[in-house]
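Researcher: Next entry in the queue.
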Amino acid sequence: MDDNKLTLVSEDGKETVCEIILTHEHNGKNYVIFEFMDSHEISAAEYVEDKNNPSEGTFKDIETDEEWEMLDGVLDKFFDELEDEEEE
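Model: Structure for this entry, 88 residues:
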């Protein structure tokens, strides 16, 4: 991960560069909302820290509709705050 960029590596070894939009902690879980640089699609994943090496970790797919709805609300609030800042 470099600054606000991360590289996701698929099971077949394909690398995709993403830009981190924001991170969010909820109910003891850490989430990362990011944008794929090539398609501008926005997605999210749960970040699971490596207990043996706290500076590293893995990403886990979001598994429930409740998590997606919560993250959608967080992202909407984030964009609303950005819009408010631009209007000031």
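Model: The chain has a mean pLDDT of 90.
Researcher: Noted, moving on.
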